[in-house]
Amino acid sequence: MSRTSAILAAAVVFGLAAPAFADTIRVGVTISTTGPAASLGVPQRNSIALLPKEIAGQQVTYTVLDDGADSTRAVANMRKLIEEEKADIIIGTSTTPASLAMINVAAETKVPMISLSASASIIQPMDATKRWVFKVPQNDNLMADAIAGHMAASGVKTVGFIGFNDAYGDGWAKEFTRAAAEKNITIVANERFARADTSVTGQVLKLVAAKPDAVLIAGSGTPAALPQKTLHERAYAGKYYQTHGVANNDFLRVGGKDVEGTILPAGPILVSAQLPDSNPIKAKALEYVKAYEAANGAGSVATFGAHAYDAAILLTAAVPGALAKGKPGSAEFRAALRDSMEAQKNVVMTHGIANMTAEDHNGFDSRARVMVTIEGGAWKLLP
Amino acid sequence: MDLSIFLILVQDGVVNGAIYALLALSLVLVFAVTRVILVAQGEFVAFGGLTYAALATGQTPGAIWLLGGLGLAAFAGGLWQERRRMRGGALLRHALFTLALPAAIIAATLVLAPRRAGIVVEVLLAVAIVTPMAPYLYRIAFQPLGNASVLTLLITAVALHLALTGLGLVFFGPEGFRAPPFSDAMILAGPLMIPGQAIWILGLTLALMLGLYAFFEKTLTGKALRATAVNRLGARLVGIPTAQAGVLAFGLAGFIGALSGVLIVPLTTVYYDGGFMIGLRGFTAAIIGGLGSYPGAVLAALLVGVAESFSSFWASAFKEVIVFTAIIPVLLWRSLRHGNGEDEE
Q1: Are A106 and A28 within one domain?
Q2: Nearest by CB to A192, which of B15, B173, B317?
Q3: Is residue A369 within 8 Å of residue A146, measured between CB atoms?
Q4: Which one, A83, A212, A243, B61, has the greatest CB density within 10 A?
Q5: Ramachandran assignment for A371, one of left (phi > 0), alpha (psi -120 to 50 degrees), beta (any other)
Q6: How far is it, in rounded angstroms, from Cα A319 to Cα A340?
Q7: Distance between the two ends of chain B, CA-based, in angstroms?
Q8: Total structural domains in chain A?
Q9: At A41, which CATH number?
């Protein structure tokens, strides 16, 4: 061994040993950075780089794997993270079907997981399996209630629904049917379209023929712009509603002037700069936006990435309580971490304020959503 | 359903069908000449669309670096495979095609992209960037396989599709893009509003089909391609370089794919992985047409387009099922009519 490489090796050894960390908390992350949910997974992966490297004096390492929104790969990733990387906690994944598949592994291995996907079915109804599972994005019923509430308040009686031909669209159809019934709103057309469709003329003709007061489009990201553009072409004059799945700047870019005036519910982070200073979420959200844009360029922030940041906020809040009961890497620590997350109250995140209970592993209330419209090519907070 | 809805659905179906027809044509062509079922045809559509969308908004498309990379890989691959034979003139031609050509296209793009050179230049540039990728891929992935079985070639084609989807994500990002239409003109004919873009699609499809017909019937190169399709061995015996025929067939497929992408990106949002479903419909049409007949493929493509448009009106949740299930009765009918003769190898 030459002198240089000997010095280098010594430097590496001492470099690693230098910070006096007692133990390492290992966080395993599986998200969909490729495949159909890549527009969710990519900002989430970028957010992982912003997460704290040290919590309560413990070093934290993150291992990120890609599951391509595939349930089988998500489960395989999770097992790999737990068995090979000795993960203390799993963050992921970006989509509902894959998250549902991961629940059983969490319960079997007794490793807590924080899901980054929307459906309430991931944590409800609570049972012995799901007690290991937490979820940081808003439940879809919270958002569906917000839309139905806004519709009722603005005099909408009939609604045409067009949603993705997958779990996202079906979940919304179910939630919105329930929410609309509570407000005496009738759904007069229920259509589906696929993410990669080049034309939705057929569905739109049917929607227009049913003459609804408003149309709700349940799609995520840029594909949700197509039905709205086609409706405009067919001169549909009613109100347009979208879901929080479209809350990124790419939707504005693709939608252009055709999506002006659209109303949607979203996490407060989408309009963080417009929130009143009295709102505790504002500071947290702006902190994330600033950190993300410093690393990835101005205007690059998406609300989806913030869910990963929220997962780390929950973890950071829970670690001190868990450290008292066990050392990172042990089964006691993992169980204590689960208990501690469940006991967290008033945790301020970028998307809302969480009050966990044994029954509710999301903990968000109506403070976790705001109604937003699109005005002059930008998001605008509705009062 | 009244007459106006019926007409609008037919119009929508025909416009989509025209794109499927182009893809079906290139699938039939590539299969006839090289026996490759080009699963990755849809990727050229997506790449063409995304490249044009970037150019139309004054951005420099990431695709040029993909083109450069593929050119380099094709250069190295070709050099290695023919290291004993390639000398002088052949080496120079190889370098010109795989190194100088992409370099020239990259240089032209870097100069023209920020200047907004107009629709015609941008369309040509987008097609020029994506088209050469197809022959490079043939050089890298299929030419070394020589006379492998159809199954081996199919598996390679699937692998190529997966690799290209991954590269698409790297070079174009996960979000969809859309371009402004070629013209904002709108023709009113009774209940129909025919957008200018639809006329462009139909017109260019027709022109391309006539062009292909003239190419295959009137030119020596076209006749050589047909000869290779009919009988590879015979074509080689009379001195037709069949590997060249493969490069040419892939070139045409890349050209048609890129052009289709450019045509649809003003109508819909195109994603890095969105080409596959479009290509699959072209494939359905090619299969219904018998994977050997050009007019059959075109007719079947129009049928697929119209069936899709009507099923999206009546049962949008089952649209995909209806369109792709159409293959089964056709295959049944064909196998009953022709017996189940094994594919002649």
Answers
A1: yes
A2: B317
A3: yes
A4: A243
A5: beta
A6: 7
A7: 49
A8: 2
A9: 3.40.50.2300
- For chain A, say whether B29 makes contact (Cβ under 8 Å): no
Give residue for tokens 């252009």. A256
The domain of A55 spans 22-138+293-364
Domain boundaries, chain B: 3-338
Number of DSSP helices (H) and strands (E) in chain B, helices first: 16, 2
Q: Which of B178, B274, B106, B173 is nearest to A297 (CA)?
A: B173
The tokens for A281 are 């979420």
Q: What are phi and psi of A121, to 5 degrees?
A: -65, -15
Q: For chain A, report the end-to-end CA distance as a whole number of angstroms.
A: 69
State the Cα–Cα distance between residues A202 and B320, nearest whole angstrom.
Answer: 13
How does DSSP assign B144-166, residue by residue? Answer: GGTT--HHHHHHHHHHHHHHHHH
DSSP letter string, A141-189: HHHHHHHHHHHHHTT--EEEEEEESSHHHHHHHHHHHHHHHHTT-EEEE
- Hey, what amino acid is at A173? A
DSSP state of B270: B
ipTM for the whole complex:
0.75
> A185 and A133, same structural domain?
no
Q: Dump pLDDT digits (tens) for A188-211.
A: 999 999 887 888 989 999 999 999
d(CA A145, CA B60): 43
A121 with A145, same domain: the answer is no
Q: Provide the 3-class DSSP secondary structure of residue A65.
A: strand
Question: Are A194 and A128 members of one domain?
Answer: no
- Mutation for B interface: A201, A215, A217, A251, most B CBs within 10 A: A201
Q: Determine whether the interchain pair A226/B316 forms a contact, defined as Cβ–Cβ distance below 8 Å.
A: no
Q: Does B312 touch chain A (CB under 8 A)?
A: yes
A275 domain-assigned: no
Question: What tens digit of pLDDT does each residue of B239-298 get?
Answer: 888 888 889 999 999 999 999 999 999 888 898 888 898 999 999 999 988 888 888 999
Assess B166–A contact: CB distance below 8 Å, yes or no.
yes
What is the pTM assigned to this prediction? 0.81
